Amino acid sequence: MVIDSSGLSPVDAVLAATGGRGVDVAAEFVGHPDTITQAVAVLGGGGRAVIVGLGAEPMAVLPPVQFVRKQLRVLGSYGFTMRTIERVLELVDAGRLNIAGSITHTFALDEANEALATLLQKIGEPQRIVITPPRSPGHPSGVI
After folding, report:
1. What is the separation of C-alpha 117 from the centre of its chain, rounded to a whole number of angstroms?
2. Is the pTM of this model over 0.70?
3. What is the 3-state secondary structure (H, E, C) of the chain?
4. In this predicted structure, what is the pLDDT of residue 104?
5. What is the distance between the alpha carbons of residues 51 and 72, in angstroms, rounded to a whole number?
6. What value, to the nearest 5°, has the Cα angle with vertex 131 and ends 116 and 87?
């Protein structure tokens, strides 16, 4: 379900769609206090809010009495594990996932420090950066 929050409260829309029950899991990818609060507010009893978005502002959530009565959980996630990255690469290699449109920068391995600086300083609005290995004889893609 996609909700255009410019015309409708996301919390009201989710609660209406679930008959007031709420959802089991809400994932928040923006990192803004308002969207974190909304993610928690749409939870049903025993629900989990997974906060992935990184923001500088402190988050505020429901009053403690609502947390306790509904037995809610808020979890932080840095977004991936090594196995997640391996699985994504397997899907790309198998042609089942195309990430080309999200790659904003490509660097050679010897430019790794520049790649990290690009991420840190947000040069050119980096989304996904690829670091290519050196070409290997007999392996035209450069992947060994």
Report:
1. 21
2. no
3. CCCCCCCCCHHHHHHHHCCCCCEEEEEECCCCHHHHHHHHHCEEEEEEEEECCCCCCCCCCCCHHHHHHHCCEEEECCCCCHHHHHHHHHHHHCCCCCCHHHEEEEEEHHHHHHHHHHHHHCCCCCCEEEEECCCECCECCCCC
4. 92
5. 13
6. 105
Q: How far is Cα 40 from Cα 23, in angstroms, rounded to an integer?
A: 10
Chain segment 102-135, per-residue pLDDT in tens = 889 999 888 888 988 898 888 998 888 888 887 6
Q: pLDDT tens, 64-77?
A: 888 899 999 998 88
Q: In the numeric block, which tokens belong to residue 128?
A: 């996904």
Q: Report d(CA 20, CA 76) in Å as an integer.
A: 25
- Measured CA angle at 56 (ends 77, 83), to 5 deg: 20
Alpha carbons within 13 angstroms on the beta-carbon side of residue 99 total 16
